[in-house]
Design goal:
about 170 residues, mainly alpha, Rna Polymerase Sigma Factor, Chain: A, 9 helices, about 0% strand, sigma factor activity, RNA_pol_sigma-70-like, transcription regulation, sigma factor, DNA binding
Length: about 170
């Protein structure tokens, strides 16, 4: 069965179809949440809240083909809400080393520098970079998720990468 058929079944109230959709998307959603908060527990909280909100409002999804865009938008909103609720996110190096899903021993300093640099970007640049490089979305998909023109996404991506290069003093991406 295609993904759209599972989405249609979930919209009609099929819990197994919804569960399957969450199962195939959980890793990608977790990576995106982790990119925002840099903390395993907060990322899992965001993921849980996203699944809950998606479950109670799946019947409001009009186009099954936009399921991925829709769930990603819910996740981003939840991540931003958690960041605002907790105030400014403080990145702790010890906390990052505990979360070895993202940070490996070999390049941990470089990855931590990159995560710190991404954290320091304006939200508009940060959102585009996270969706592009952590969620592996295309420019058009990012434009749909963020509800902005493709040209704006390209501009934000280029400016964000330029700021990261300046911050890190090297070619990173």
């Amino acid at each position: 069965m295609s993904i759209e058929k599972y989405v249609k079944a979930a919209i009609k109230g099929d819990d197994k179809a919804f569960s399957y959709l969450m199962e195939i998307n959980k890793e990608s959603l977790y990576r995106t949440a982790f990119a925002y908060v840099k903390n395993k527990e907060d990322a899992l909280d965001i993921l849980q809240e996203t699944v809950y909100k998606a479950y109670i409002s799946i019947d409001k999804l009009k186009e099954p083909k936009y399921f991925n865009t829709w769930i990603t938008r819910i996740l981003i909103n939840n991540a931003i809400n958690l960041i605002r609720k907790n105030g400014k996110v403080i990145l702790l190096v010890d906390n990052m080393k505990e979360n070895d899903e993202f940070v490996s021993d070999s390049n941990s300093d470089t990855k931590l520098d990159l995560l710190n640099a991404i954290d320091g970007l304006d939200d508009r640049y940060k959102n585009v970079i996270i969706l592009k490089y952590f969620k592996d979305l295309t420019i058009n998909e990012i434009a749909e998720v963020l509800d902005c023109p493709v040209g704006t996404v390209k501009t934000h991506l280029n400016k964000g990468l330029s700021k990261l290069r300046v911050f890190l003093g090297e070619e990173i991406i």
